């Protein structure tokens, strides 16, 4: 019988030898397994040791870092405090921080940081800014001590890890004295003026700094000051002028302007914004004068009169003088014209004159009581100015009469410039029947009558030529 597989079947001895070989291989594999488990165990134990060693070194490094941080904070020559981010509790303060806060460093530790803010909401604002920007630098904050004493600090803030907790490191620099000096200096160079020149402090101002732009300028002057003050002592003169200026000057700031300089009892002010600011400031100033006059009359004193001129145009505003003495000033032909316009208030017996440039720059001139005044060429200038009276601050009765006769008055002036002098005269007389004390109308009536009597030449324009300043 033949075998399908040509290989002969293994004998029993051969099978037994193969089994022994396999058993030896199993024993060897088991030994290898035991050796691997021992090695793994040793490696694991060594790893735990290394981890513990590294953790110990890390803790030591943190402790050393915090120790050094405390030493650095303590050695810092300004007040430094560390507060917990979540609770705002002070966890560390250097020695200088204590007296600044009105106690010792140990006493302020454990208190909430907001206890020292006059306005606690400012703390939240600074923390919010810190979270957005990663740092806060040189913010002026008003603090308060437990005894109620208020002081100013310049504060800067950073995030740090302290005692393994997220915290805020804050540096306080006492600027109370500097703040007081700045506030005193602002009485000479107002904050608005610094801002206008893009300067942060007085130390940043230099001779020749200037800004040029289209602005509105105001001149105002106390009329008949000489006659009022001649019976006063020097002290009474100063008290009187300061009482007046103390009432009207805030109206400039209220309306977004700033006073460039005082001219004795006069004021020169600039309004960098719209022309409405200058016009409204003039109205507010005259309203203050009305209140002041009511008090003066009640005290048996003479009322005062004020003239205001406002113009709008391109001008330069900056610092003039020399290295040892400088002051703010404004330059341009428009500024010079405004001074002349203010002077014309006395000529026309009105309180407030604006130029056509200012009227045209108003957002809505119909908001105000404005009427045409005259066309004028001032001495030394070729430019013809069209002038308007603002009578919002007139006393109630004169204001009502001017408003009632406004249309008739305007028609009279149209006849005048059309050389229709007879019609102009009739209309002006109609106005005076209703308002016989209107000095502007009386002046125009005199001019019209003169034109009727003497005639006019072919180059006549109706412009009033001023022969004196």
The top level CATH class name of the domain at 186-394? Alpha Beta
List how many beta strands DSSP finds.
14
| CATH fold topology of the domain at 186-394 | Alpha-Beta Plaits
CATH-defined superfamily of the domain at 186-394? Nucleotide cyclase, GGDEF domain
Strand content: 15-25%
Which sequence of SSEs, written as H and E, runs from N to C? HEEHHHEEEHHEHHEEHEEHEHEEHHHHE
Summarize the biggest pleated sheet. 9 strands, mixed
Number of helices: 15
CATH architecture of the domain at 186-394: 2-Layer Sandwich
Mean pLDDT across the residues is: 85
User: Which bin fits the share of residues in helices?
Assistant: 40-55%
Q: What is the CA-atom radius of gyration, in angstroms?
A: 43 Å
* Shape annotation: elongated
* SS content category: alpha+beta
The oligomerization state is: single chain
Write the layout of secondary structure elements.
Blueprint: H1 12-75, E1 79-84, E2 90-93, H2 97-100, H3 105-108, H4 121-133, E3 136-144, E4 150-162, E5 165-174, H5 176-185, H6 191-196, E6 210-223, H7 225-229, H8 234-254, E7 258-263, E8 266-271, H9 275-298, E9 305-322, E10 325-331, H10 333-348, E11 352-355, H11 356-361, E12 370-377, E13 385-390, H12 396-404, H13 406-417, H14 421-434, H15 439-454, E14 464-465
Parallel strand pairs: 9-11, 12-14
Antiparallel strand pairs: 1-2, 1-5, 3-4, 4-5, 6-8, 6-9, 7-8, 9-10, 11-13, 12-13
Helix pairs in contact: 8-9, 13-14, 14-15
């Amino acid at each position: 019988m033949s075998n399908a597989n040509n290989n002969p079947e293994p004998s029993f001895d051969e099978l037994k030898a193969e089994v022994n070989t396999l058993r030896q291989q199993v024993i060897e594999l088991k030994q290898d397994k035991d050796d691997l488990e021992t090695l793994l165990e040793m490696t694991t134990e060594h790893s735990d040791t290394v981890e513990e060693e590294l953790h110990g070194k890390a803790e030591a490094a943190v402790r050393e870092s915090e120790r050094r941080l405390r030493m650095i904070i303590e050695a810092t020559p300004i007040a430094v405090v560390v507060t917990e981010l979540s609770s705002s509790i002070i966890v560390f303060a250097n020695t200088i921080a204590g007296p600044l806060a009105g106690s010792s460093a140990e006493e302020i530790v454990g208190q909430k940081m907001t206890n020292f803010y006059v306005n606690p909401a400012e703390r939240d604002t600074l923390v919010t800014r810190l979270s957005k920007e990663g740092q806060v630098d040189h913010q002026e904050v008003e603090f308060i001590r437990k005894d109620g004493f208020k002081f100013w600090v310049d504060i800067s803030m950073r995030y740090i890890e302290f005692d393994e907790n997220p915290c805020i490191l804050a540096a306080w620099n006492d600027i109370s004295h500097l703040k007081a000096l700045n506030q005193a200096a602002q009485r000479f160079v107002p904050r608005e003026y610094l801002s206008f020149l893009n300067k942060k402090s007085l130390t940043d101002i230099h001779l020749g700094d200037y800004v040029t732009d289209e602005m509105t300028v105001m001149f105002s002057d106390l009329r008949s000051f000489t006659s009022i003050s001649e019976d006063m002592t020097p002290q009474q003169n100063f008290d009187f002028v300061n009482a007046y200026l103390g009432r009207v000057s805030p109206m400039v700031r209220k309306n977004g302007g700033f006073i460039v300089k005082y001219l004795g009892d006069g004021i020169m002010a600039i309004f960098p914004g719209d022309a409405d600011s200058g016009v409204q400031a003039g109205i507010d100033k005259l309203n203050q004068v009305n209140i002041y006059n009511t008090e003066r009359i009640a005290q048996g004193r003479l009322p005062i009169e004020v003239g205001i001129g406002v113009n709008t145009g391109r001008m330069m505003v900056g610092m003039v003088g020399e290295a040892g003495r400088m002051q703010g000033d404004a330059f341009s032909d428009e500024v010079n014209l405004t001074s002349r316009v203010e002077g014309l208030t006395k000529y026309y017996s009105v309180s407030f004159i604006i130029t056509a440039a200012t009227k045209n720059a108003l957002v809505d001139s119909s908001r105000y009581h404005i009427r045409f005044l005259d066309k004028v060429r001032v001495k030394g200038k070729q430019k013809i100015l069209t002038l308007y009276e603002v009578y919002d601050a007139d006393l109630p009765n004169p204001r009502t009469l001017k408003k009632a006769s406004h249309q008739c008055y305007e028609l009279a002036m149209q006849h005048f410039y059309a050389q229709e002098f007879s019609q102009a005269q009739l209309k002006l007389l109609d106005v005076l029947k209703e308002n016989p004390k209107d000095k502007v109308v009386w002046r125009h009536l005199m001019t019209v009558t003169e034109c009727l009597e003497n005639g006019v030449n072919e180059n006549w324009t109706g412009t009033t030529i001023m022969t004196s300043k």
